[in-house]
Amino acid sequence: MQRFLSALACSLALLPAQAACPEEAALALRFMQGYLAYNDAVFLGSSSQPVEAWLDANPLASPGLRKAYRAKQAEGLQRDPELGWGFDLLLDAQDYPEQGFELRRCPAPGYVELQGRGWPEFSVTVKTVRLGKALRIDGAGVLNIPPARRARQH
Questions:
Q1: Which of 5, 14, 46, 84 has its CB surrounded by the most CB atoms within 10 Å?
Q2: Residue 90: what are its φ and ψ, rounded to 5°?
Q3: Distance between CA atoms of 75 and 51, rounded to whole angstroms?
Q4: How many domains does the chain have?
C-alpha cells in the first residue's frame, strides 16, 4: 500500500508540469519526431538534404532557430572542419532514441523536456516561442537553450 501511495504521489506531482503546456508539448514532440525521421532518412540514404535545408523547409522552426543553427554549425566547423562539434546540435547528443520521444515535463513557460521512449535517461530540452498567433520551435538541444535549462544526459 505504501508503494502505491508513493507512486500516486509521484504521478500527481508530475501532472501540473505536464498539463501546463499541452500546446507546447505537442509542438515539441511533432518537431522532434520529424527531426528523428529526417535523421533516419539521411542515415538510410533516402535523403541528402542538409539540416539547414530541413530547418528552412520546416514551418515549425522559427527564424531564430534557423539562425542559431547556422551560427553554431559555422563555429563548430571553424574549430574542426571535419567533425564540427562532434555531436548533433538539436539533440545535444551523438545518438538518439530509435523509438522517438515522449513528454517528460514542462519545467518553465516556453520550455519542454522530452525523454526517449524506451530510453528515459535520454532527454532533450525544446524551447517554444509565440510569433504572432503561431507557436514555433525556437530552440532545441544546445541551440537557444541556456546551459542551466539544457537536459542532462545520463
A1: 84
A2: -75, -25
A3: 15
A4: 1
- Which grid cell sits at 131? 510569433
Paired with 103 in beta bridges are: 114
pLDDT tens profile 108-147 = 999 999 999 999 999 999 999 999 999 999 999 999 999 9
- Residue 113 bridge partners (DSSP): 105, 125
Cell numbers 529526417 label which residue?
A: 38
- What whole-number distance in Å separates Cα of residue 110 and Cα of residue 54? 23
Q: Is 2 left (phi over 0), alpha (psi -120 to 50) or beta?
A: alpha
pTM value is 0.85
Structural domain includes residue 154: no
Residue 70 placed within a domain: yes
Strand order from edge to edge, sheet including 111-116: 101-108, 111-116, 119-131, 134-140
Domain of 84 in residue numbering reads as 2-149
